[in-house]
Amino acid sequence: MGRPPQELSAQLRIDRSVMAGCIDGLEDSGLVRRERHPRDRRAYAVTLTPEAEPALAEGGVPRLLDRAFGALTAAERQTLSRLVGKILDVS
Q1: How buried is residue 55: exposed, middle or buried, by Cβ count under 10 Å (0-12/13-18/19+)?
Q2: For position 90, what pLDDT does the model report?
């Protein structure tokens, strides 16, 4: 079963709007999908697609992230990593 975006946002300690953007990117990459939450039909749950399973098995999270953030240059990825780290250190 998938997880609601709000729960993922809370677990990762990132803003809900940032989480929505991350989910959009992963969804565009074919790695996750939004489905109706089985217990709350008003809500959505984010689940991994079958395409995400091999990516996780082959190279783990780093490979999955490479695929999801493939549009970013190496410098942009480094900046993103630094900024996210800064946000997590403050929280």
Answers
A1: buried
A2: 52
